[in-house]
Write a structure and sequence with these properties.
The structure is a homodimer of 378-residue chains. Helix content of chain A is 42%, strand content 16%. The first copy, chain A, is of the alpha/beta class. Chain A has two domains: 5-10 and 258-376, Aspartate Aminotransferase, domain 1 (Alpha-Beta Complex); 16-256, 3-Layer(aba) Sandwich (Aspartate Aminotransferase, domain 2), CATH 3.40.640. The mean pLDDT of chain A is 97. At the A-B interface, helix 1, helix 3, helix 4 and helix 9 of A face helix 1, helix 3, helix 4 and helix 9 of B.
Chain lengths: 378, 378
């Protein structure tokens, strides 16, 4: 017997209603039955994105929606400003480069958040910048950006603001319309409590102007085709039907909980996790701009970080994430996002303590769990 | 109470093992558990594709894999030969056009199959053609192409042969290696008995040469990235985990049945369906090149084709497909592909008879079912 606990920043655990919905006999996508589902999720996505505009569904990983944002907005030789302070921020510039778009980079130290003033400065210095690409929560470092302030800066320029909210949407606040986010992209396997396979993209009027003018080649990810189909409650290509039906179930749960409750649950879990790490004498990787989505923790001196994650997972069934790219072996990442709550966090911390103890790290057994309990019961 | 029967050319019904597998708690994709699944499906896909080479998995509709084939093989201003004799054949030229690739068209009359000699003639007339894009089974008309003969023609040229086998793979024979198919693309929701959301693409050595030379922009669908990850039993982006796990279940069933048995089951169902239609006095849309995947039938004079399909579906729960594009209202399409067998066909024909009878079409009630039974029991 081995029970599995998932505390990773995507995929996140699935609610039982979501699991059940995917085991139903499949229905055809061009039927009144499926159109009713599409109508329901269209409304639910607007609620989650906090937008009055449409949110299109793509059948792809989150990266597909990122590519859709880049190629629909910009033409070859256009200039974009890309904020990078982690593995996922770097992806924006990689996509731009693949399509011959000039990527001006703001290189943020990993573990720090970008300064909205820096974005303002860059926009003023180079009026040719047509789009600013940012990340809501940089999953590789656990850092959250101040999208509200960035939005207030970008809205005064001709550039559009694009936010990769793959990690974070539906877990921490992002007011697409009120914060002047022109394109918000997200994925299914994070705050939305679904398996991976769907991505989502909202588009403002300011963004549509650029989309209609873009000369970049596109077909599968052409947002003009997505809009044309969506206006008739349809998709241009066969959608991932079971995942869309599961999305309807997840959105039902989220609407019942309400965004405010969801955000405060995530904040509580993040506070508890951070308190636990500090009580264990561990150092947070991003103490000044920590997101409520995932907490990156420095691996203490003398401990093999990759072995820690591997032992928790392969011996005890508790999956957290290790470090990526330049942080490999240097941090571990403890996610508190999606269908996770208080007692999952306690379980995860208790497993972390068990393995740290076995690895001869010095700390008071139980101190992490107790610190988390104090937050949850405070 | 209303029971649903699915006789559409994608999605096709799901085996209970496939349904069940998608309701399991999700696992993380960068774990030994998931790598074991990837290894298993890598072998299973080679068996289904009848290739010794790797078959990559993309998280997208089948169209995504078609786009991957075009942009990975060809650079802007290159020339391709596109066979079009239906809605899906037209997609090849549309994708080429979107990426600035010259598409030379072979316009085949809808309902007829392309002549391999015509392809040979075109290749000889224009040595600049770098790729030939074809369709195994044109779902909109029910026509199957003679890929074996086409392959024997294309192999003598510098061009690569690309086959859209989205509809048909795992239902009718396609020997990727033996028939000299350089790129074979398929989707999950047809012969493979899965929900939509995954696509598959096999690549020959001849194709890899062109892929490494292509200058078309690409990121999400870059096959070089897919290969690099696949060589380490991984995917470049988060895959649709539940669908990959479901794929393992479907491939297990298919390997147990064996390709020969699967193909003969499909042939029997197609023969029975065609016999039933003729016994009802209905005319086949593609009598000379009918596939064993889906049968397109002309709507008889005086009958409203759209109403026929709608009544079968909305009143009786039996979903068949109507005509697409220029065939809207003029044909209906009765699929016999995937997790469908003898008694599903009988059920579907009996519903067709019920509605035709209600619509005052003149025929002997029971004649269609009986003709199908005779084939199944012959």
């Amino acid at each position: 017997m081995r029970k599995n606990y998932l505390l990773t920043p995507g995929p996140t655990p699935l609610p039982p209603q979501v699991c059940e919905s995917m085991s139903r006999p499949i229905i055809h996508h061009r039927t009144p039955q499926f159109q009713a589902v599409l109508k329901e999720v269209a409304e639910g996505l607007k609620y989650i994105f906090q937008t009055a505009g449409d949110v299109y569904i793509l059948t792809s990983s989150g990266t597909g929606a990122m590519e859709a944002a880049v190629i629909n907005l910009l033409s070859p030789a256009d200039t974009a400003l890309c904020v990078q302070g982690g593995k996922f921020g770097e992806r924006w510039a990689e996509i731009c480069k693949a399509y011959g778009i000039n990527a001006e980079i703001i290189d943020v130290e990993w573990g720090k958040a970008v300064s909205p003033q820096e974005i303002e400065k860059r926009l003023k210095a180079n009026p040719k910048i047509k789009a600013v690409f940012t990340t809501l929560c940089e999953t590789s470092t656990g850092v959250a950006s101040d999208i509200e302030k960035i939005g207030s800066v970008v809205k005064n320029s001709d550039a559009v603001l694009v936010v990769d909210a793959i990690s974070g949407l539906g877990a921490i606040d992002l007011k697409t319309d009120a914060w002047n986010v022109d394109i918000c992209v997200s994925g299914s396997q994070k705050g939305l409590m679904l398996p991976p396979g769907l991505s989502f993209i909202s588009v403002s009027l300011k963004a549509w102007e650029k989309i209609n003018a873009s000369k970049s080649p596109r077909y599968y990810f052409d947002l003009r085709a997505a809009k044309k189909a969506w206006d008739k409650t349809d998709t241009p290509f066969t959608p991932a039907i079971t995942l869309v039906i599961a999305l309807a179930e997840a959105l039902k749960i989220m609407r019942q909980d309400g965004l405010e409750n969801i955000f405060s649950r995530h904040k509580k879990m993040a506070d508890a996790t951070r308190a636990a790490m500090q009580a264990l004498g561990l150092e947070l990787f991003a103490p000044t701009a920590a997101s409520d989505v995932v907490t990156a923790v420095k691996v203490p001196v003398g401990i093999d970080g990759e072995k820690l994650v591997k032992t928790m997972r392969d011996t005890y069934g508790v999956t957290i994430a290790g470090g990526q790219a330049e942080l490999k072996g240097k941090v571990f990442r403890f996610a508190h996002m999606g269908f996770i709550e208080e007692f999952d966090i306690i379980a995860g911390i208790s497993c972390l303590e068990k393995v740290l103890n076995q690895m001869k790290y010095k700390f008071d057994l139980g101190a992490g769990v107790k610190a988390a309990q104090e937050v949850f019961n405070g």
